[in-house]
Amino acid sequence: MKLTFLGAVHEVTGSCTLLDACGKQILIDCGMEQGADIYENCELPIAPGELDAICLTHAHIDHSGKLPAMVAAGYAGPIFATEATSKLCDIMLRDSAHIQEFEAEWRNRKAKRSGYENYVPLYTMNDAIKTLSLFESYPYGVDIPLFEGISIRFLDAGHLLGSASILFTITENGKTMTLLFSGDLGNCNRPLIRDPEKPTEADYVVIESTYGNRLHGERPDYVTQLTSIIQDTFDRGGNVVIPSFAVGRTQELLYLLRIIKEKKLIKRHDDFPVYVDSPLAVEATNIYAGDMREYYDKETLELLDKGVNPIHFPNLRLSVTSQDSRAINEDATPKVILSASGMCEAGRIRHHLKHNLWREDSTILFVGYQTEGTLGRKLLNGADYVKMFGEEITVNANILEIDGISGHADRDMMLDWLGNLQNKPIKVFVNHGNDGVCDLFAKTVTETLGFEAVAPYSGDTFDLRTGEQTETAKIVKVTSKPNNAARKRSDMVFERLRMAGMRLLSVIEQNKGCANKDLAKFTSQIDALCDKYER
């Protein structure tokens, strides 16, 4: 009976842990790494086809995004998840596969011209569809037998619709032990979904530490803040543009906007339009608005019992096609625009920024964390201008941020969750946190609760019969490579160029059906650019 840590160790993304028990190999999460890579992760020590099961905590890509790659490599077993997680994965994994194929198409156009080998995508749409057929959905609080001697139970993690902590009960050689994976624990008192369910037992715990060194502080009055920002902007004649993550954050904002609309808090701008401009966000919103009663909090259920849709209101407009998206900025009516991506690195939000950043009457409102180096972070840091679509755009809009909106529990919330255990666990493993935060939170757990806590690295293996570490992987920091700083700067610059190329392809698709004269001019401009830089 052993546990091997593979991903999201001393890093925040790429969650992946391997459990070996009762002769079975079970993977808990299979996430994609996002953002800067700090450590080189170990490969899965067995072939994907040798895995017996995968258990998924929730649908976010940093926990689910590599599932189709596992299937493409031979995995054919069950994927256990909640119903809501299964439904969200249905849209998110398809979307991820589309991005993989789109990137491969772009890279291979270049490879063909340069004589390089073809780029193979991490997985295809067919892989994603095959993966979705493997999902088995279960509710919270039910004991689910996986194999002889192994069962699991999903507990509400309060992070995302359907998110779960997973409690394993394992009986091997006559000895029974419990192993609890926190998944991503949610913040408290959020719209729509319940607070995290606190565990009562566990011999071992694997807990995240995203905010293991921070507190959210006193909860702001989001409705009052949002009302003030919208009112001021509309009175100036501008738009409120909100870069928002498509799944979770967008639906929470719709909940708040419904309250604002219902109470008629915006004066002199009756029935103002609210646009959700992201195909993925629209699909996710439809899932949130479906029959998901099992996952909602008390307030949301009370609304549903009264016949009120908690995230729908008059003049909510869902934009799916490119034509729908373009029409938003052709309308001079002051409006709220929710669009992805949340950090402004790609997607339709960039078009809305292009049309609104230069306007003194408009507001760009950030409601989520902006990673260093992203366009969103540059705007929050006070950039006077930004380059988008080959243009230098002056930043005249009001750049604002609402603090405290987070989908993760903070340090004290996680300690409270752990402290609810009625037994003293043999060991607590801390993962899913930035380098340094994992170690700090492990120390905090030991000092505050008296639990032995460690922060493993990728490749570390622990014997769950004794609690002792049996294998220690060589720790390889990506930043330790020779000349890495210079190479990393070069890679970042090239990555920006590559992303610009992908945006160009997106713009080309959006111009389908335009006048031949305009298309011919656009083509000539692209050809001239290629002639200048082609090597």
Describe the structure.
This protein is α/β, with parallel strands linked by helices and 535 residues long. It has three domains: 2-215 and 407-478, Ribonuclease Z/Hydroxyacylglutathione hydrolase-like (Metallo-beta-lactamase, Chain A), CATH 3.60.15.10; 222-401, Rossmann fold (3-Layer(aba) Sandwich), CATH 3.40.50; 481-533. Helices cover 35% and strands 20% of the residues. The protein is built from 15 helices and 23 strands. The protein has helices at residues 61-64, 67-72, 83-114, 125-132, 222-236, 249-262, 279-288, 298-305, 322-330, 349-356, 375-380, 411-419, 437-449, 484-510, 516-533, and strands at residues 2-7, 16-21, 24-28, 53-55, 79-82, 135-138, 144-147, 150-156, 164-172, 175-181, 204-208, 240-243, 274-277, 316-319, 336-339, 363-366, 385-388, 391-394, 398-401, 427-431, 453-454, 461-463, 469-471. The strands form four sheets. Strands 6-5-4-3-2-1-22-23 form an eight-stranded mixed sheet. A seven-stranded mixed sheet has the order 7-8-9-10-11-20-21, covered by helices on one side. Strands 14-13-15-12-16-19 form a six-stranded parallel sheet, sandwiched between helices. A hairpin with a 2-residue loop joins strand 2 (16-21) and strand 3. Helix 3 packs antiparallel against helix 7 (279-288) and helix 5 (222-236) packs across helix 6 (249-262). The longest helix has 32 residues, at 83-114. It is globular. Residues 480-492 have low confidence and may be disordered.
